[in-house]
Design goal:
Layout (H helix, E strand, L loop, with lengths): L1 H8 L17 E6 L2 E7 L9 E7 L4 E7 H4 L6 H7 L4 E4 L14 E3 L2 E4 L8 E7 L7 E5 L5 H4 L3 E12 L3 E2 L8 E9 L4 E10 L1 H10 L4 E9 L4 E5 L4 E5 L18 E7 L21
Antiparallel strand pairs: 1-2, 2-3, 3-13, 4-17, 5-15, 5-17, 6-7, 6-10, 8-9, 8-10, 10-11, 10-14, 12-13, 12-14, 15-16
Length: 291
């Protein structure tokens, strides 16, 4: 109680944003049909500060979109501002970006608009959506070493290239060690659902991947989209609206800068039309998710 009183006296700043939700029940919470929020502690350190926030999005009920300042001709916006502008239910970083604060580090295309026309040689994941054929999945996460990406990319309206974090056969594709960063990532589970993932607590990318593989989220592939204070995840639903932002390792008391401007984001919004069944690339029906 003394600590609380002192903190109130020091300007009303209490705890990091994540700690404000310390009472979140572990596991999945149904926010809407096809949209779940999961909050998980690291299984090997359940009392530690590392917590994974996962928004699970079923492409049968939700459609994906890519928004960039280069295409819209507007200044960079915060995650919440992007969400409000385009009526999105979930928003996450699309990718890291170059010093011009506009251009993605990897290939980035939305319809006819090319934010970055160059295929990054060391970036092994492609997030694709908007297929030209009904025979293709509505959204997919391609592994450059396992999928025919050169043939598939032209068949999708939107493509985002990033580093692979977890690839085929649930294999971690990031070396151990390295700097500690907050992490934002996009994954796919074995049912074909898309996962927007975030960890505010700075950690290595390898550690982040090992936690994901140990969680009950049936992860299949994961691509890294951003690290550090700019790594964020925004959720906007009738049941819950929230934002999770990264932080500097030494900046414990900050909940991150929710107003940080981001030039390129991925979003998801509920479909206005009835859901359509999703398929794996080889035509197999997606199994129902197991929670």
């Amino acid at each position: 109680m003394i600590l609380l009183a002192l903190l109130w006296a020091w300007g009303g700043v209490l705890f990091p944003a994540d700690l404000a939700h310390a009472e979140d029940a572990p596991g999945w919470t149904e926010l809407d049909t096809g949209l779940q929020l999961g909050v998980f502690s690291a299984p090997d350190a359940p009392d530690g500060p590392e917590r994974i926030v996962a928004v699970r999005i079923d492409p049968a009920y939700y459609e994906f979109s890519l928004h960039t300042t280069s295409e819209e001709g507007e200044p960079a916006l915060s995650l919440a501002e992007w969400g409000r502008r385009h009526d999105l239910n979930a928003v996450i970083n699309a990718s890291m970006y170059l010093p011009d604060a506009r251009t993605s580090t990897g290939y980035l295309r939305n319809g006819e608009h090319l934010n970055n026309p160059r295929i990054g040689g060391n970036l092994g994941a492609f997030f694709v959506f908007g297929p030209q054929s009904s025979d293709l999945p509505q959204v997919d996460l391609l592994d450059r070493t396992a999928d025919p990406w050169e043939a598939l990319l032209p068949q999708y309206r939107s493509v985002v290239q990033n580093y692979r974090l977890i690839g085929a056969n649930r294999r971690i594709l990031w070396p151990q060690g390295g700097p500690l960063y907050s992490v934002a990532a996009v994954g796919q589970d074995t049912s074909g659902a898309i996962l927007f993932l975030h960890c505010r607590e700075p950690l290595t990318a390898w550690r982040f991947a090992t936690i994901l593989l140990a969680l009950p989220i049936d992860i299949r592939d994961v691509m890294y989209v951003e690290g550090g204070p700019q790594a964020g995840l925004y959720l906007r639903t009738p049941l819950r609206t929230d934002v999770w932002m990264g932080r500097h390792p030494a900046d414990f008391w900050s909940g991150g800068n929710a107003a940080a401007p981001l030039p390129n984001v991925l979003g998801a919004r509920r479909k206005a039309t009835p859901p359509q069944p999703g398929l794996f690339p080889d035509g197999r029906e997606r199994p129902a998710p197991q929670f």
